[in-house]
């Protein structure tokens, strides 16, 4: 049952990432798409409550209780970050997305797909480490894109307010990639404890 709930929750990360990517390609629809991501985030919050409630009522769990809690909150934080980015695009009235931000949004789609694959493999410990290695690589790529994007902003500075918006957006996207890597670290801990 825990694994089934994890799978449903991790699928919400892929839905949110796909909607975020769609938003980046259609900023003129930022209100509509940010609201759709907010719906996904609320659905995820309900799942988190179910998992935590089940954890509190369970005497025996399939993996360490702390790992169940960490994985649940990690997936929740990942979705929260994507919802935060979508809301910020709408609130800041961002009308153009920089190339590095586009690259990062695509990388987040791929990383969330990898998170989902890892979560779907939780019951097969021997299959988990390749997913974790991929997630570490995505985070490394995100760091490179983030640094390049911020450097580009300072080389060709736009209006100071626009610069602040775009810098924050790039950093928020990189933080989202960090959350994917944090999930990899949690899963690695599960492997170590149960191998």
Report the helical percentage: over 70%
Instruction: Estimate the global geometry from the Cα principal axes.
Output: globular
- Spell out the helices and strands N to C: HHHHHH
Number of domains: 1
Unreliable sequence segments: none
For this structure, what is the CATH class?
Mainly Alpha
The CATH superfamily label reads Phosphate transport system protein phou homolog 2, domain 2
Summing up helix and strand content along with how strands pair, one would put the structural category as: mainly alpha
Pfam families: PhoU_div
Coiled coil: 30-57
Organism: marine sediment metagenome
Protein name: Phosphate transport regulator
Keywords, separated by commas or semicolons:
single chain; 195 residues; mainly alpha; Methane Monooxygenase Hydroxylase, Chain G, domain 1; 6 helices; 84% helix; 0% strand; globular; coiled coil; PhoU-like_sf; Phosphate transport regulator; UPF0111_domain; Put_Phosphate_transp_reg
Describe the structure.
With about 200 residues, the chain is mainly α. It has 6 helices and no strands. Belongs to the UPF0111 family. InterPro entries: PhoU-like_sf, Put_Phosphate_transp_reg, UPF0111_domain. This is Phosphate transport regulator.
